[in-house]
Amino acid sequence: MKDRRRFFAPTATSTGEVVPLPPDESAHLIRVLRLRVGDEVRVFDGRGHEWAARVASVAKRQVSVALRAPVTPQTEPRVAITLAPAVLKGESLDEVVRDATVLGAAIVTPVITARSARVRGFQVGASRMDRWRRIAATAAKQCGRAVVPAIEAPAVFQAFIDRTSHERNPGRHLVMAVEPDASASTSFEVMDVREYQRRHPTAPVAATLLIGPEGGWTADEVALAEQSGWTLVTLGRRTFRADAMPLIGLALFQFVWGDF
Q: Which helix (H) or strand (E) holds 250?
């Protein structure tokens, strides 16, 4: 069976039941793959469970599948990472959500920073949240994950810092990625990834990775994060695009924590 015969069924719960596929998944099965009743497929629920299944019924716009037997899903990263990227202009955050899903992020929480708050036309509505969640589900389907990361509503920077700082504990690391020259422009301690790894040889249980907007962080934002217990880390000597930084940060820290 080919991997493309894999479908997201968020209402699936147990072996033996017959569950409907969402409209977009049904359309893909009917119109693109042209599957029929009796064809074998894989189904995942987005919460870490997956089944071998069979197409039970095909109507004009609705497909149901019978869950036949559980299968071992793809292994999730050891460290549950919450990716907190700054809101970016245009549709750049769509790509960030997709890439974060593929790389194994557990949660994605966009953050409205001082500079990203000035992004023209940015609005957070139900349609945009639905779009990000569909992108995450599609990315999980394509990359083989049985988990669809939670996509949280964007949070204002200070409120996000206040909330996550209360969640701080020895098993959870709070990491703010800063520009390469941050150590020269701030009085706070800034370390590179190698120094971070030396000081933290044991991987945490969970971590939050905060990534800045186009134009970088303001001095006040860096100060607030540092004073709230965040570790300031540079991700190398080069300055990367804001939409590339989440991908780079996730990959680097997964390597550091042994998740590659």
A: helix 245-256
Q: Determine phi and psi for 123, rounding to 5 degrees.
A: -140, 145
Map tokens 């020259």 to a residue: 181
CA distances 109 to 16, 106, 130, Å, are 35, 10, 14
Residues sharing a CB contact under 8 Å with residue 109, sequence separation 6 or more, in sequence order: 82, 83, 84, 152, 154, 155, 160
**What are 83's two structure tokens?**
């990716």
Q: Report the predicted TM-score, pTM, of the whole model to 2 decimal places.
A: 0.92
- Count Cβ atoms below 10 Å from residue 100 Cβ, excluding itself: 27
Token pair belonging to 165: 């700082």
Quick one: tokens of 157?
A: 């920077």
Range from 36-40, 159-163, 209-213, 234-238 carrying the lowest mean pLDDT: 234-238
Q: How far is CA 150 from CA 59, 106, 228, in A?
A: 31, 7, 25
Query: Whose CA is closest to 7, among 48, 43, 38?
Result: 43
Q: List the domains of the chain with CATH numbers.
A: 6-71 (2.40.240.20), 80-256 (3.40.1280.10)
Instruction: Identify residue 234 by its one-letter amino acid code.
Output: T
